[in-house]
Amino acid sequence: MGIITEKLPCYIEPIPGGSLLLTSMDAVINWSRANSLWPLTFGTSCCAIEMMMATGAPRHDTSRFGAEVARPSPRQADLLVIAGTIVRRMAPRLKTLYEQMGEPRYVMATGSCAISGGPFMYNSYSTIRGADEIIPVDVYVPGCPPRAEAFFYGLLTLQKLIKEGESVRRPGERRKPVLSALPPGITLDQIRAEMAAVLKSDATVNVEQAAKKLEKESQDGQCESADGCCCSRT
Amino acid sequence: MSVHITTLDDRVRLRQDDSSPLSTQEYFVNMGPQHPSTHGVLRLVLKLDGETVREVIPVLGYIHRGIEKMGEHQSYRQFVHLSDRLDYLSALINNWAVSMTIEKAANIELNDRIQVIRTLMAELQRIQSHQLWWGVFGMDLGAFTPFLYGFRDREIIADIFEETVGARLTMNYIQPGGLMYDIHPGFVKRVKAFLQYFKPKLAEYETLLSGNVILQERLRGVGRMDGQTALSIGATGPVLRASGVPLDLRKSEAYGSYGKVAFDVVIGKNGDCWDRYWVRLEEMRQSMKIVEQLIDNIPEGKHMVMKPAVKIKLPEGCYYNQVETARGILGVYIVSDGKESPYRIHLRTPNFNNLWAITETAANWRLGDLVAILSSLDVVVPDIDR
């Protein structure tokens, strides 16, 4: 285990011959889980190289965060880093890999391909538009590919999530997925709604229709698609 | 006359042969698609007899993203960024291949500055790619230290690229008609510093790994492929040159500024794993030689000869052009119908053909040797599947 980035919340009572450490069960379990993430060596394309640069290379070293023990077997790993595009043929394998991992398991989607399909979102007949269509994702790390620093930011975000996350009384509780490079508070649905709104506005090139729409809006007082219903992926 | 096409199902059907009590039974093992030493999502179906590999059947498609089909929907400029994602370890050279095809078809004349910078970038990329290969090759054979050494030195080139290009891996830098940006003012200084740093390091690579007895034993004579076989499967790059065929487009076609520089085409003798290892190490040395000759005299001029906003339309017809990437010949074939986007794009990628060397070389070697052979071919899977 490397340098612990956060102290365990505890109380130390000095007693003769040593000291007594008082803490809560949840704190110690989550603290140790967060600081000993074992990633699975799983990389499909370009992002895998940047992941190798982040995890294995000497400049950026994940052992600082206790996550350097990369395991080739999913049964020994707790962190699945989806590094690269997932295509239709790979999707069932990805699901198998995820299911083979023991609980608690965490998933980081690094790179635009794993988040939304990225450069292969349009006109590709084989790409899965985002790995979250197959397995639940905890942290999204944007970038094409994300730099090693971005990868670490995602890892730190995941550690924070684990520390705040499940407890003994509420086992297996899933946290809401977060995007690691944006300010806290903004949810993925908001970003998707915004993206969909942009896409929709780009698609309407007919000037006459747009003028009619504006006219209608000014009469009705509000836009019909303000709730962003067109974009929710259910 | 009926033609029987051998499918995968036919090939994985086991032969029932129990004539002798001493006869062994063959069995199949899947290697991949999730396997640490297939370097991605390559699946190999291995027919094994004990620990001896009888046959290797590569099964592809686990990262097939349909790049060729996507090219039909994008303009010529937009297609350049997709070429980054083919063989991401030589992204700049892929950019160059696409750009050069478009330039030749559209009759765009480039100035010397663009050619020299492209050549410099391509050679730095080649060194970077071989550094990564060296590190991973060591790791596949059980030595973790080369991985750290290779990645340490790779970061320095990544920094040089980042300063000029703005990206570390997927560059999108070489464009039809020139370069995206001019080089950074500190580019020359940093490249020189890198050369000074890396020359002794390359000697260190040799003392660290090449002289190792275990490595020599695991590589010498293993996975031998003669020049004729290599040519017949269409292998290119270091895999072909290790088999003694001196085919290097940098020499034979002398595109870019390769005609102005002196360098040797490194060839091996036996075509075994050791030769493939040695050829790549020597190529790093030759690449440094090219960079050294060009870095001091980068001519003045513009970095872009055409306006970036101008839409490119190629006249109707078929165009083919090829360059030497770090792994072999990348050919780009464009069929144009005179519109803004190509009618059809086909990519002749080096890794696809190089991978087929495994079917020729790995038979009757042990399972452990298969890893060495596969790693010495240096395949990048998204380049195979496109």
Describe the protein's architecture and organization.
The complex is a heterodimer of chains A (234) and B (386). In chain A, strands 3-4-5-6-7 form a five-stranded parallel sheet. A two-stranded antiparallel sheet of chain A has the order 1-2. Chain A has seven helices and seven strands. Chain A is globular. Residues 201-205 and 223-234 of chain A have low confidence and may be disordered. Chain A is an alpha/beta fold and 234 residues long. Chain A has two domains: 11-186, Rossmann fold (3-Layer(aba) Sandwich); 189-231, no CATH class. Chain B is of the alpha+beta class and 386 residues long. In chain B, the strands form three sheets. Chain B has a three-stranded antiparallel sheet, with no helix packed on it. A three-stranded antiparallel sheet of chain B has the order 6-7-8. In chain B, strands 4-5 form a two-stranded antiparallel sheet. Chain A binds chain B through residues 41-46, 48-50, 52-53, 56-59, 72, 74, 84-85, 87, 89-90, 93, 97, 119-120, 122-127, 144-145, 147, and chain B through 33-36, 40-41, 61-66, 69-70, 72-74, 81-82, 84-85, 88-89, 132, 147-148, 151-152, 154-155, 158, 168-170, 381-382.
Summarize the structure.
The complex is a heterodimer of chains A (234) and B (386). Chain A is an alpha/beta fold and 234 residues long.
